[in-house]
Amino acid sequence: MAPSLQLVHRDDFERRTLRALVGGAALGLLAGLAEGFDLTLNPGLAVMAAALAGARPKPSTQTLLWVGVPLLAALPYLFRAGAPVPQALSGAIAAALVLWIGPGGERLGKPSEVAAGAVATGALVPLGLYVQQVMNARFFPQEGLLGALVGFSTVALFWGVGTLASHVTVHVDAVESRGGQLEDRVGGEAKELLERTRSLYRQCRTLTLKMPSGAGRDELLGVLQKMANESFTLAESHAELETQLAAVVPQDVEAQVEQLRQRASATEDAVARRQLELAASSLGEELNRLQLLARKRSRFLAQLHAQVALLERARMSLVGVAGSEASAKGAQAAHLAQRLAALGQDNPEPIDESPGASVTRLRG
């Protein structure tokens, strides 16, 4: 199966890059003004400004980041190595700190993400410096305020783009890739079940691939993929309902219905009373629809629990098969695939109480 690339936390990357560009531009303006006083700022310092501007740490780690980035990113310059080594190391250190404790939101960066981002920024910062030198030589030979602004912004932009490596993951399995794409869309208990589903699927897939190749193993892999995909579909449908229900507060709708009914009973104009009653009836139907969606959300969550339990059962069965003789594993794989498929069919689908509801069935 061909590997697939997945971009995660895309919004965090876009915000960081834009903020880094602004930070580099601000330092570029300062560098341009400093030239009037015969002071020269190293364009490599743009990575520090980019890191400080692009970081979005939690309040508890904000001070640590603001102190750590300037101190640690300045260390490579103390060794007096030739350019662009200090700038590259400085960019890598700044990126590692930002991606670790200030990637965005309440999360902390994973070691693999931090390492990938640090290596990529360390490679791109020298390229940004080269582009800055070429642009100065061709367009801003006298440097000045505009030259400093463009040059520092260029270095900061290359630093920000380098952090993209921390947002790219490679999946060799399409099912696993789909589960990863849902992480940012699902929250609460459904997200915990989604993460559990991904973990169980990986374990089941690993155990299955250790079996002898054959039709039985292929059938078992197909059943596992179907079970995981059904769990992901349930999680996705649950997330869609959460979004719909979060947009409207049922208590507010109830209050509006009650208010309209009171006004209808108080008015003496028959036409006005009829219009108010129609409005109250329309809102009442919307309230009923919200209650229906809330019940469907609960059922999707219950079904997701059931699907996770099926995957857990599959994992335990695969552990038992793994301990048997190699000659019997092929037949056991086929038998297990048929048994899991039968269990999946026994799992009831949600009842569509309203044909007009905006929720689709998960199975035909």
UniProtKB/TrEMBL annotation:
<keyword id="KW-0472">Membrane</keyword>
<feature type="transmembrane region" description="Helical">
    <location>
        <begin position="144"/>
        <end position="162"/>
    </location>
</feature>
<feature type="transmembrane region" description="Helical">
    <location>
        <begin position="60"/>
        <end position="78"/>
    </location>
</feature>
<protein>
    <submittedName>
        <fullName>Uncharacterized protein</fullName>
    </submittedName>
</protein>
<keyword id="KW-0175">Coiled coil</keyword>
<keyword id="KW-1133">Transmembrane helix</keyword>
<feature type="transmembrane region" description="Helical">
    <location>
        <begin position="114"/>
        <end position="132"/>
    </location>
</feature>
<feature type="transmembrane region" description="Helical">
    <location>
        <begin position="85"/>
        <end position="102"/>
    </location>
</feature>
<feature type="region of interest" description="Disordered">
    <location>
        <begin position="342"/>
        <end position="364"/>
    </location>
</feature>
<keyword id="KW-0812">Transmembrane</keyword>
<feature type="coiled-coil region">
    <location>
        <begin position="257"/>
        <end position="293"/>
    </location>
</feature>
